[in-house]
Amino acid sequence: MHHDLTLHAADLRLAPLAEDHAPALLDLVDDELWAGMTSPTPRTVQEMTTWVHAARTTPQRYAFAVLGPDGTTRGSTSFYEVDERVARCEIGHTFYGRAWWGGSTNPAAKLALLTHAFDVWGMHRVALRADARNSRSIAAMRRLGATAEGVLRGHRIAADGTRGDTAYFSVLAEEWPGVREGLLERLGSAPAPG
After folding, report:
1. Which of 59, 114, 151, 184 has the fewest Cβ atoms within 10 Å of its own Cβ atom?
2. Do 103 and 187 meet the contact criterion of CB atoms below 8 Å apart?
3. What positions belong to coiled-coil segments (predicted)?
4. 189: pLDDT strictly greater than 70
């Protein structure tokens, strides 16, 4: 879905994802980093441009490029399955280049997204999910303060056609103040990016 929403937190800017982000995003990915995604690893600028185009045109999905203070593309993330009627959405389709793993990038991006979801859109529930084999993403959701809800068996189809399980987490509106405090604390003591 095309949108003009730009979000900020700490030193990050989440800008609407555009086709011109594709070359920088391609430089960040490889098979190991892309594992757990449901599409094949993009190998060319055209394949990443196709992925970006799909992200931008999916209904109820707000896709972002995650940009550092110098404009460097650090990765991508999205709101998706946005349902204002029942006040819920999901955050996902997230990946960052390895140079920004373990630093402030993910907590800052989640702070920007969750702040918008709860404080601007008035969401009651924000869900996050990952392939159940993706221990890194699951650990990040736990550090975020999201509540583990369980595993949906046989829920995902990987790029190679195999089935996988999905681990679900969520944050409810009444939990958001505590989650926000935890993210702000982490950002206050986060190591410098890169």
Report:
1. 59
2. no
3. none
4. no
The Cα–Cα gap between 144 and 30 comes to: 25
What global pTM score does this model have? 0.93
Q: How far is CA 35 from the centre of its chain?
A: 15
What would the pLDDT profile of 69-119 be if each residue is shown by its tens digit? 999 999 999 999 999 999 999 999 999 999 999 999 999 999 999 999 999
CA–CA separation, 157 and 188 (whole Å): 38
CA distances from residue 104 to 77, 142, 173 in whole angstroms, order as listed: 15, 16, 23
Q: Which CATH number fits domain 7-188: 3.40.630.30, 1.20.1250.20, 3.40.50.10470, 3.90.180.10?
A: 3.40.630.30
